Amino acid sequence: MKARIAVLGGDGIGPEVTAEAVRLLEAVASGYGHEFEFVEALIGGAAIDASGSPLPPRTIDACRSSDGVLLGAVGGPQWSDPAARVRPEQGLLELRRVLGLFANLRPVRTLPGMLDASPLRPEVIAGVDIMVVRELTGGIYFGRKSRTAHEAEDVCSYSAPEIERVTRVAGRLAMARGRRIVSVDKANVLETSRLWRSVVERVLGQEFPEVRFEHMLVDAAAMHLLRRPTSFDVLLTENMFGDILTDEAAMLVGSLGLLPSASLGVDRAGLYEPIHGSAPDIAGRGIANPIGTILSGALLLRHSLGLAAEADAVETAVERALASGMRTADIAPSGAPSVGSRAAADAVIACLASEK
Fold first, then answer.
1. Same domain, 246 and 126
2. What's the structural domain count of the chain?
3. 8 and 130 co-located in one domain
4. pLDDT digit string (tens) for 34-79?
5. Which residues are designated catalytic?
6. Would residue 112 count as lying in a domain?
7. Among 202, 231, 253, where does a domain finish?
8. CA atoms of 329 and 340, how far apart (whole Å)
């Protein structure tokens, strides 16, 4: 097949890890008879420096005309003034809005041979396989904001249709997995969570009767993610709670650098990015872990291009590379040797080629 992929390297280590994911996708295209065109564009701080905007019109056009978007990371200390009128993060939030991306999928799965990378005991994390479904365009991040010298306000707002559509995404995913959903909220305190709870009950009860579901307060969910993570299948939650819980869940597998994400809307074209930030402290050194971005490329293959077999092959190649002992600095045991970004991607590409 032919496909057009927008590549937004962004800031910090973003361009480095996206470059390795592009090499992996080129290997997929070559090995499986596809033709992928990659179109690079600016976002975040790099876009501010070049144009004054964190999301220039050219970037929006490139994303809208592509079959999927691969993104690195945005932000850095040179743009970190919280009082600044224009900030890198605005570009990412606006891109999600422009593309109508309301559901963020964040798979969290521990791999054999990698249990030592987590600070948790191996017997606690062995077999973890969680799909976090985070609502992406509502809640406190997108609500009304105001600030004076003496007070500030961030409004958390949700509508029933916003909750319905992300619940349906979680329901469909659960039907293809273990048919279990934990819906996370703070319904003992927040009105938005009370609405969330009632809508989730209605949608799952009427449209997905085969799915077993339970409600869990966010503080309890944070505890149980570390205490009994294997009890979770699909975890459904609102925007801010999902942002926090998925960073916590990264410790189950050992590093933010290992986890991918997919942001989806009504159309097949989605946005794919690792969950880590721009890591400016290691930018330019060639040591960033590209695995989260490579696995984001696998999600792009599966969800936007419909290439499930190729996505499976990439994920298997990653598992084999890690099982062989390949370790970047963030997941290498103390004092053990590690490889850089390019060598890590080379190992995955070699494993992919050996599968053909």
1. yes
2. 2
3. no
4. 999 999 999 999 999 999 999 999 999 999 999 999 999 999 999 9
5. 141, 186, 219, 243, 247
6. no
7. 253
8. 8
Q: How do strand 2-10 and strand 35-40 relate by DSSP bridges? A: parallel
The residue among 178, 247, 239 whose CA lies nearest residue 208 is 178
Q: Is residue 110 part of a domain?
A: no
pLDDT of residue 99: 93
Instruction: Decide if 109 is inside a domain.
Output: no
Q: Domain boundary residue among 230, 253, 276?
A: 253
Quick one: how many helices (H) and strands (E) in the chain?
12, 12
Same domain (yes/no): 151, 61: no
pTM of the predicted protein model: 0.92
Q: What does the pLDDT look like over 260-306, one tens digit per residue? A: 999 999 888 899 999 999 999 999 999 999 999 999 999 999 999 99
Across the chain, what does the average pLDDT equal?
Answer: 95
What stretches of the chain adopt beta strand conformation (E)? 2-10, 35-40, 68-73, 103-109, 129-135, 145-147, 152-154, 180-185, 212-217, 234-237, 260-264, 271-274
Q: Is the pLDDT of residue 356 over 70?
A: no
User: Which residues form the domain of 235?
Assistant: 119-253
